[in-house]
């Protein structure tokens, strides 16, 4: 009898986990390792019901100066709930193999304060789950600094090429649309 009662908390935890996964949009299911940290970013806990910009980055790309503009956008819209996630990738052969170098470029050289992950695959069958869903909802990144604007329901509002600067009016308008979107709970 005691053994059966011990199984109840484990069962409740399992059911709770399934309910949380069901409440979480497909895009945000899973986690990614945080750049130069021992922790992971639980995408659902961090970004559910929040407007989000996801950018695949590369330290040695000619578009790397966009980090400054992305940080400016982050600071401008953070009070309105915007979250930003940078995902370094070597898919286009322009990212360091040393995550300390990647962190230096992001944090020291460009003053990035938004979350950055350890380098991930962002294209093809072995792309991380986040980028597989982004590609399914819009398209796969064609180069570094491809930008995705995601609404509070986990749906891509718009995606932008590397050529689109962070202060581009269309990019800003997409962010404002994502901020104005209703959360899943409503």
Automatic annotation (TrEMBL):
GO MF term (any one): peroxidase activity
Keyword RNA-binding: no
Signal peptide: 1-21
UniProt keywords, alphabetically: Oxidoreductase, Peroxidase, Signal
Lineage: superkingdom: Bacteria
Record Pfam families: GSHPx (PF00255)
UniProt-listed PROSITE patterns: GLUTATHIONE_PEROXID_1, GLUTATHIONE_PEROXID_3
Family the entry assigns: Belongs to the glutathione peroxidase family.
Protein name, as recorded: Glutathione peroxidase
Organism whose genome encodes this protein: Pseudomonas granadensis
């Amino acid at each position: 009898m005691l053994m059966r009662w011990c199984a109840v908390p484990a069962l409740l935890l399992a059911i709770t986990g399934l309910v949380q996964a069901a409440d979480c949009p497909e895009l945000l299911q899973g986690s990614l390792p945080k750049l130069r940290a021992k922790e992971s970013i639980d995408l659902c806990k961090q970004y559910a019901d929040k407007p989000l910009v996801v950018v695949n980055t590369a330290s040695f790309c000619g578009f790397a100066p966009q980090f400054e503009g992305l940080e400016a956008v982050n600071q401008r819209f953070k009070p309105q709930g915007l979250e930003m996630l940078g995902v370094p990738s070597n898919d286009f052969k322009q990212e360091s193999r040393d995550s300390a170098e990647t962190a230096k470029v992001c944090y020291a050289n460009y003053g990035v304060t938004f979350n950055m992950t350890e380098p991930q695959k962002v294209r093809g069958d072995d792309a991380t789950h986040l980028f597989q869903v982004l590609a399914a909802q819009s398209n796969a990144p064609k180069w570094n600094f491809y930008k995705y604007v995601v609404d509070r329901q986990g749906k891509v509002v718009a995606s932008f090429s590397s050529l689109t600067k962070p202060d581009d009016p269309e990019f800003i308008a997409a962010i404002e649309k994502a901020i104005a979107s209703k959360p899943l709970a409503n």
